[in-house]
Amino acid sequence: MSTTLETDASSEAAESLRDASVDVGDESDVETPADEQVTTSREVTVDTRAVDRWSSGIVLALFAGATGVTLENPVVFLGAVVGLAYACFGYVTRPPPLDLAVERTVSAAAPLPGDRVGVTLAVTNEGDRPIADLRIVDGVPGALPVADGESRACVSLRAGETTVLTYELPARRGEHRFSGPRLVARNASGTVRRAVTATVESSITVDTTLETPTLHGQTLPYPGQTATDDGGEGVEFYSTRQYARGDPMNRIDWKRYARTNELSTVSFREDEATSVTVIVDDREAAQVAREPDGETGAALGRHAAVRIAVGLLDRNDRVGVASLGAGSYVTPSTGREQRARITRFLDDPRGLHDRPGVLTDVCNGEVDRLCGHLDRRSRVVVCTPLADDSLVAMTKTLTARGHAVTVITPDMTPDTTGGDLARIERSKRVDDLRRGGVRLVEWSPDDALAVAMARAERRWSA
Question: What segment(s) does the record annotate as region Disordered (predicted)?
Answer without folding.
Answer: 1-42
